[in-house]
Structure formats: structure tokens, C-alpha cells
TrEMBL record:
InterPro entries: Calycin (IPR012674), Fatty_acid-bd (IPR000463), ILBP (IPR031259). Monomer. This is RET5 protein. It comes from the Eukaryota. It comes from Falcunculus frontatus. GO terms for molecular function: lipid binding. Belongs to the calycin superfamily. Fatty-acid binding protein (FABP) family.
């Protein structure tokens, strides 16, 4: 049985965000701004339904989905694209595949103790973020 990811998580660290955003064709000004942000995550996990909120001082992004069901994701707030997204479990990791213009786009979340890890990929770039559970 997969873990329940419900909780509020505060930003701890990130690696390689600028190169990840460059792979998504984000302009240099927005890349610099995003790299300064320290997003929080709020996850509501009820059975196969999940809501993942990424919360920043600039803009929030909400993913609301059922695990295992493909849906059209509007990534307009991120990079102006739409893609076909499927989120599923691979063991204890929540894995997202985003099919669209960019190859190898997606992410995976997993817990290590009270830390939430996020590994995002686009093309050949990988960005890793870590968050600390606070409630």
C-alpha cells in the first residue's frame, strides 16, 4: 500500500532549477525569479484522489487528479503548454508522466522520514527539491 502524502511541507533546498527551467524554454528573467522562490507544498491525499498545491509568493499552482487516470494538464502558469498527464504509484513513489512537446517531462515525489523529495525532469535536465513536513 502506498504511503499517504497528506501534509504541509516547507521548502528546504533545490538543485539545478535554472537548467531545468532552461530545458522548458523559460526566459532568463523568469528563470532568475523562479530560482529565488522558496515554494511550499500542500498535499491532500484521499484514496486515489490527490490535490497538490505548490505555494509561492508569486503564484500558486494546483494539480487536482485521480491516480492512474490520464488528464489534460494546463501548464500555462508554468511554461504555457498543455500536456497529457498520468500520475501513478511505482512502489512508494508517486510518479507523473507529462506527454507533450518536451521529452522526458515529469516528476516523482517520495518520503524519507518527514522529508518530501521531488525530482523533476525535462529533456535531459533534472531538478531536485526537498521539503520538510510541518503538519
Amino acid at each position: 500500500m502506498p504511503p499517504n502524502l497528506t501534509g504541509y511541507y516547507r521548502f528546504v533546498s533545490q538543485e539545478n532549477m535554472d537548467n531545468y527551467l532552461r530545458a522548458l524554454d523559460i526566459n532568463v528573467v523568469l528563470r532568475k525569479l523562479v530560482c529565488l522562490l522558496k515554494p511550499d507544498k500542500e498535499i491532500i491525499h484521499t484514496g486515489d484522489h490527490m490535490v497538490i498545491r505548490t505555494i509561492t509568493s508569486l503564484r500558486d499552482y494546483v494539480m487536482d487528479f485521480d491516480v492512474g487516470v490520464q488528464f489534460e494538464e494546463d501548464l500555462g502558469p508554468v511554461d504555457g503548454r498543455k500536456c497529457q498527464t498520468t500520475v501513478s504509484w511505482e512502489g512508494d513513489q508517486l510518479v507523473c508522466e507529462q506527454l507533450g512537446e518536451k521529452r522526458n517531462r515529469g516528476w516523482r515525489h517520495w518520503l524519507e522520514g518527514d522529508r518530501l523529495h521531488l525530482r523533476m525532469t525535462a529533456e535531459h535536465e533534472v531538478c531536485v527539491q526537498v521539503f520538510q513536513k510541518v503538519k
